[in-house]
Amino acid sequence: MAARFLLHHAPNSRSAGSLWLLEEAGADYELSWHSIEAATHKAADYLAINPAGKLPALVDRGPAGDWTGVVVTEAAAISAYVADTLPEARLAPPIGTPARAAYAFWMAYGPGVLEPAMADMAFPRAKEAPARALGWPAFPEAVARVEAALSTGPWLLGAQFTAIDINIGGLLAWVTQWGLFQPGPNIARYLTAIEARPARQAAIRKGAAPA
């Protein structure tokens, strides 16, 4: 029987985080390889899966392999979906527990605050936008909130590693590797711990190029 999950993936793309997520979850998955250079993510067969023509996209065939047309796109949505679908992986606090509130906040903080702030930093506007027109602060202020949150534990929710550490940790690792960001002491420790995770290293190996 085919694997439950099919991840549409290209090396050095946002789908790397979703691959890491599946490794952390111990999920039954396989990869459908794409080439950014060849624009396979813009081909008609892929646009039928994700009309936005972006990676990643995750197909869920269901526990028995009999689901059709179940697709999740957007990296944060994939993280939330997998974490809730595979609760035994403990990548999300259970629904109805106090930690779920902070989890929901951080799940939105990555794509809603950190990513647009990072884009503004990397690609500044010709003219600065009015502050009231944006729903996020400048990147140094946005990342300072992460630095402060990490003062109370190794992960954003304290002792428990969760899907939000994949989303936010992966993003911060990327901007650090590209020299766009100099992490403070808490984030530097956080990134070291992230790189040491066996699932992240496995995802890097498996996602580098087709076998």
Major sheet strand order: 2-1-3-4
The geometry reads as globular
Unreliable sequence segments: none
Query: How large is the share of residues in beta strands?
Result: 5-15%
Mean pLDDT: 95
Main beta sheet strand tally, sense and closure:
4 strands, mixed
Element-level helix/strand string? EHEHEEHHHHHH
Q: Helix tally?
A: 8
Measured between the Cα atoms of the first and last residue, the distance is: 20 Å
How would you describe this protein?
Helix 1 crosses helix 6, helix 1 crosses helix 8 (198-207) and helix 4 runs parallel beside helix 6 (163-177). Strand 1, helix 1 and strand 2 (29-33) form a beta-alpha-beta unit. The protein has 211 residues and is of the alpha+beta class. The model has no long low-confidence stretch (mean pLDDT 95). The two termini are 20 Å apart. The chain has helices spanning 15-25, 44-47, 75-85, 99-122, 139-149, 163-177, 185-195, 198-207, and strands at 5-9, 29-33, 57-60, 71-73.
